[in-house]
Amino acid sequence: xxxxxxxxxxxxxxxxxxxxxxxxxxxxxxxxxxxxxxxxxxxxxxxxxxxxxxxxxxxxxxxxxxxxxxxxxxxxxxxxxxxxxxxxxxxxxxxxxxxxxxxxxxxxxxxxxxxxxxxxxxxxxxxxxxxxxxxxxxxxxxxxxxxxxxxxxxxxxxxxxxxxxxxxxxxxxxxxxxxxxxxxxxxxxxxxxxxxxxxxxxxxxxxxxxxxxxxxxxxxxxxxxxxxxxxxxxxxxxxxxxxxxxxxxxxxxxxxxxxxxxxxxxxxxxxxxxxxxxxxxxxxxxxxxxxxxxxxxxxxxxxxxxxxxxxxxxxxxxxxxxxxxxxxxxxxxxxx
Length: 336
Ligand SMILES: Nc1ncnc2c1ncn2[C@@H]1O[C@H](COP(=O)(O)OP(=O)(O)OP(=O)(O)O)[C@@H](O)[C@H]1O
Ligand SMILES: [Mg+2]
Hints:
- It is a single chain.
- By secondary structure, this protein is an alpha/beta fold.
- The protein has two domains: 3-114 and 301-317, ATPase, nucleotide binding domain (Nucleotidyltransferase, domain 5), CATH 3.30.420; 121-295, Nucleotidyltransferase, domain 5 (2-Layer Sandwich).
- It has helices spanning 31-34, 42-64, 83-100, 109-115, 160-170, 177-185, 191-194, 214-226, 232-261, 276-288, 306-317, and strands spanning 3-7, 12-18, 22-29, 73-79, 104-108, 128-133, 138-145, 148-154, 265-269, 292-295.
- The protein has a five-stranded mixed β-sheet with strand order 3-2-1-4-5, sandwiched between helices. A five-stranded mixed β-sheet has the order 8-7-6-9-10, sandwiched between helices.
- The protein is globular.
- The structure holds adenosine-5'-triphosphate and magnesium ion (MG).
């Protein structure tokens, strides 16, 4: 079955063609549009989605060398996400399916992230523990099978990616800050600020699987106020300490859940999983406990439509499809 998928939940416009594997996929990242606001402006994002969806679709079809008429089903992200952005992608995808007289299916964005490591050649088998760390979410799931997800913990305030983005702004970096902060941290030494009584991971010893990130941003703000931000060395040390503290805190709770459940496979998904320092730390800590950590291929860590198509392939195989409706929901519980 040839599936065409659309992702437009935030500030990436993405499409993919999928048939037992990814045939082609395209992502347009809107960061230049939002950079000057240091955050995503939903209406501007939605207008850009509308402009880009048709040309990206054409490029994707050309690259895969298939005709639009060969598409058997259309999938799209129905939520959670920014409502004008979801509406743009959902209306486009639903209309395309209607015109082609094929089924359409709305897909849960977080389920797409959770299943994204299955796009990798080296993929986890069920069950696996997933840490989902993106721009809007930080959650820990036990993934027992397709459609069988148990949520064990989540952030009580900011998402991990959001903490990276906001801290990057505090340190004078440009938006979006996660990747920029990682680059700067490479030049720094984390030990100067990550030792006791300096930068500490909130809720590290809370006895549950929840997270919190708002406090660590405040810690960075106080430390930064005492620093000379023109001194590249000092800023790089602080960036390295922030990255180390957060990624260690995330890794420790993920492995603790896997240990408690007796699960050997770990997956780390979402935009923050693109962080190389995080990947290396999680790999080292997992293997020292006899566990193995899996990731989506780097190009599928941040928002993309390949993961939407993969999720749709499983749901369509169960006979699921939507009626003639357009689904767009800003908040949405994980599906069973
Ligand atoms: N190398 C990196 N290090 C740390 N964070 C990163 C890196 N690359 C990307 N990020 C962060 O990933 C986030 C974007 O990830 P993603 O596209 O999965 O999230 P989103 O779709 O905006 O949110 P959600 O999936 O929760 O709706 C941003 O916060 C960004 O800063
Ligand atoms: Mg996302």
